[in-house]
Structures
1.
Amino acid sequence: MLKSAYMRALETAVQGAGLPYGYAITVWATGSALVGERGMPSVASIFLFAAGAAAAYGGLRLLLTWNMGGEAERPLTRSPKPIRAGVLHLAAIGLAIASAALIARIDSGAAWTLAPFAATLLYLGISSVEVALVEDDDG
């Protein structure tokens, strides 16, 4: 079946949105878990939340700058095994949210930093498993 220009464009948009969309869900759910357990955050807690997420992302960037020889051959959203990729993506979101929900129960203001830190590491780390599997299959 020939795809129309619109369907090709829609597929491109959906493929490109996969990782940011999953991370947006993860961040929103992390914040919701914290608010549900700890109540509305102060401005300082909001900054701690942002700092936790940024520290996790920045730490990964720094680690990868020193440790890697470049990016994967295939983008995360272009797996030849879409069902496996989808399951791993759902697992990444679910495990990241679960970690945030558990950390939110810690009776300390540090939860505002630790929950987004852990959620970011888990989401990006687990999401990357699919690309590693594809590259191993190709190699």
2.
Amino acid sequence: MCRMTPLWLIIFLLFISPSMMAQPAAEKSKWNVIAPYPIDITWNKTSNLIFPYPVISVDRGTSNVLVQKAKHVGNILQLKASGKNADTTNLSVVTSDGKFYSFLVAYNDNPTHLNLMFQNDSVSKTEALPIGENEAMIREGISMVQRAKPFMQKAIREQGIGLKLCGIYLYHDICFFKVAINNQSAFKFDLENVRLNIKDKHKAKRSASQEKEIPILASSKEVVEGNAKGVLVIPTRVFSIAPKQRLLITLLEKDEGRSIHLTIDASRLLKVHAIK
């Protein structure tokens, strides 16, 4: 004998079913999938990626891809395979206008295209910097910080290079570190890269190292001649740091030369000066 379904259960299912079926679609709409752009590289030829704005961050999936910025040009990345038949990997790039670019890098003995120029909407990308930094604002801030009066005296000297933190400045929610470079050696100091890392002040021998890299919004390749001085301004987004942590500024010389380290305690970072 067939049993009848209670009327209250039918009404309940009529009300709840549409919402349950709509839930996966609503959840799906929260995600924006970025399809990587396919590019080919080889071991004996250089591939060039030309972006509309300077590159401020690069991350490669594996060391099979050799990556460098073109000399004296901030918006060109040069790629080459580390050897023949390198495995396929990915490459992530962030430019100074706040765009994120995703690439799928594959090995090819004879790539069809060696020079790729990307316009503003020619490759999969998304906003990466939510506070709206732009190149013009960063350059304006750098110019103002270069003229600003120093108010800090944190200094070190390593391998004939003296570094002094002259001040930390805030301009339109962008943080600027002003560092004076004093080359006391006879050899020029050809700066290739700058890194900012937050590290634990005291770390137990068996504990995991808590380290975080702070992205730099604009790259600078200063050359300080022997027995000469220079000034470096490092722009970053505003970041937080715990009292028991410290900021490590590392200057890396070209061709794996000298590396100079300047350590800044968290208490000093609180003395930032706003500029207008």
3.
Amino acid sequence: MINGNYALEAGLVPAKDALGLESAEHNPYANILVTTPALANDPRIKALAKDLTSPQVAEFIRKTYNGSVIPVAPQS
């Protein structure tokens, strides 16, 4: 087993080359955006969170990584 980033660096396509894949649903290893309580309401953090969950970023991830990286569910 290797993480997707190592597979991508090695020129592998996890969505195509993997013998098995973990489910993205309820995966404890998903990346999350965190901050300190002091910055929780910072407009920059809110803007980043909005951008990361946008349909545009989801589409970029899908096109760029061809299923090897799974975007968060876009917010409409």
